[in-house]
Design a protein that fits this description.
This protein is 40% helix and 17% strand. With 502 residues, the protein is of the alpha/beta class. The chain folds into 5 domains: 35 residues; 51 residues; 169 residues, Nucleotidyltransferase, domain 5 (2-Layer Sandwich); 62 residues, no CATH class; 84 residues, no CATH class. Strands 1, 2, 3, 4, 7 and 8 form a 6-stranded mixed beta sheet that branches.
């Protein structure tokens, strides 16, 4: 297709400069009929092919139409794409191009569904601190050398367009709580309203219109931070369009190409830094200002944070005979005295707390794999008092990473008669005073020639013995003028009787 500038040049050279058509055709490397035609062209030519020829596809069109009619009755997830249909035709002997199949499928689907109506929207404006939108997305990253599909929580302040994102292994309610804590700390305050999809962690029941029954535990979060929760109409993503667009942008800006980190902690620290850096972009409504400048204005309208919400989800579980509770296919240890009792297991995004009788009896870092055993050896120490033989093969003690000096002493003592019980006595004492005195005592004993439990206990007692009192300097006026003489015979005079031992 010739551009209008070239057509203008042809007309100017022929009509004004009186240059011949042959000369113009040789110079511009065009045919003479083309030059002659455009000498008479006054408006921009329109080149449009109304129907793309498909000679190779012609004999395969009935087969393709049959497949499309059959699969139109199936669920959308079970229908073949144009690429899969092209591969099916190739198996039937088709040797044409994929583009021909793709155009045919598009025209066929458009003819069956009809033209899609264009939706119209009203432009929205928000006051500083008025609203924040929330959404989840799924991204692919490499953590500690393993490819994973992670969940990313997205927040976006609607006035300044300031964003915040945090990554999690799941979309559970405790992750929602932790994401809110992180976002409000990042923003430096809380907006008046939070806008959500109807996710299960937030909404229990959807009624007509905007009526919702919000989750009880989620409302504790909303009451703590004093924001108004708003749930969108189902399948109406435009009601929180800013964060919906942010999901695609974040995927392109931060997760393409593939990112690699050692842990979620490192990934989230990087994401927070990138959110600050991206705020240097121009604001879409007021391009003379940056997002960061608008965010400074909006921060003044946010409600200050008085305290961080304790975002745990509670489960009532019974402790097994092996002093374990099971949560999300993983087992966590509990002190032995609570075996067989019901306890409250409070799970957060990063921690497991076990509560009984109103007090925290155990804490563990949360694991997200499956069939993992997380044990604290101190929880099983009371059992060793009755069953010291479990020291050798008990899983909590075999995986216990003790200091090197204690391990060496343990190996010596276990080779001695009744060594199990002797080493348990050392651990029982260490439970009261800590591992550091036991470690120092073991180092002192290893420097000598005798390595036994009594020697280690003696060294520990010497280390823990109170210091000798400092000698006081007594003033001269308080000193005795005549110090008593050590004479046991004085006691005989006091009694008036002389005792002689024969």
């Amino acid at each position: 297709m010739l551009f209008m500038a070239m057509i203008a040049e042809i007309r100017r050279r022929h009509l004004v400069s009186k240059e011949s058509i042959s000369s113009i055709a040789r110079d511009l490397k065009l045919s003479r009929p083309t030059v002659r035609k455009h000498c008479r062209t006054r408006s921009e030519p329109v080149y449009q092919r109304h129907k793309q020829p498909t000679p190779m596809l012609g004999g395969f069109q009935p087969r393709l139409e049959t497949w499309l009619r059959t699969e139109r009755l199936l669920p959308k997830s079970q229908r073949r794409t144009a690429r899969r249909l092209f591969e099916g035709l190739q198996a039937e002997g088709y040797r044409g191009a994929y583009d021909s199949v793709q155009r045919f499928v598009q025209r066929w689907k458009a003819a069956k569904s009809g033209p899609s109506p264009t939706q119209a929207f009203v432009p929205l404006a928000f006051a500083p601190g008025e609203a924040c939108q929330f959404d989840w997305s799924h991204e692919h990253v490499e953590l500690a050398g393993v490819m994973q599909t992670i969940k990313v929580a997205h927040f976006r302040l609607t006035f300044s367009r300031q964003m915040f994102v945090a990554a999690y292994p799941r979309e559970t309610q405790e992750m929602v709580f932790d994401a809110h804590n992180r976002a409000f700390a990042f923003f430096g305050g809380v907006p008046q309203r939070m806008v959500y999809d109807n996710l299960k962690a937030v909404v229990d029941t959807i009624f007509t219109g905007k009526e919702r029954l919000f989750n009880r535990r989620f409302m504790v979060l909303a009451n703590h931070y004093l924001f108004e929760p708003v749930a969108c109409t189902p399948a109406s993503g435009w009601e929180k369009g800013q964060v919906e667009n942010q999901v695609g942008n974040i995927r392109e800006w931060l997760f393409t190409p593939l990112v690699r980190f050692a842990s979620f902690e490192a990934l989230n620290a990087w994401l927070a830094t990138r959110c600050q850096e991206l705020a240097a972009r121009k604001h879409p409504v007021t391009p003379e200002r940056s997002i960061a400048a608008c965010f400074i204005t909006e921060q003044l309208a946010l409600r200050p944070i008085t305290a961080t919400f304790d975002g745990y989800v509670e489960h009532m579980l019974r402790v097994s005979s092996t002093c374990l509770v099971v949560l999300d296919r993983n087992r966590y240890s509990v002190p032995a005295e609570f075996a067989g009792r019901a306890v409250s297991v409070r799970s957060t995004a990063t921690q497991i707390r076990i509560v009984a009788d109103g007090a925290v009896i155990a804490e563990h870092a949360r694991r997200f794999g499956r069939d993992q055993l997380i044990c604290d050896p101190w929880h099983y120490l009371p059992i060793l008092e009755r069953k010291p033989g479990a020291l050798r093969n008990g899983v909590p003690f075999r995986e216990w990473q003790l200091p090197i000096a204690i391990q060496r002493v343990r190996d010596h003592i276990l080779k001695q008669p009744k060594g199990d019980r002797a080493f348990v006595e050392l651990l029982l004492m260490a439970r009261e005073v800590g591992l550091e005195p036991l470690q120092v005592a073991c180092e002192l004993v290893l420097d000598g020639n005798v390595v036994t439990a009594p020697v280690v206990l003696n060294e520990m007692r010497r280390l823990l013995a109170p210091n000798q009192p400092i000698l006081l300097s007594v003033p001269d006026m308080l000193k005795l003028q005549r110090e008593p003489r050590a004479d046991c015979a004085r006691y005989d005079h006091l009694r008036g009787v002389s005792h002689v031992i024969h």
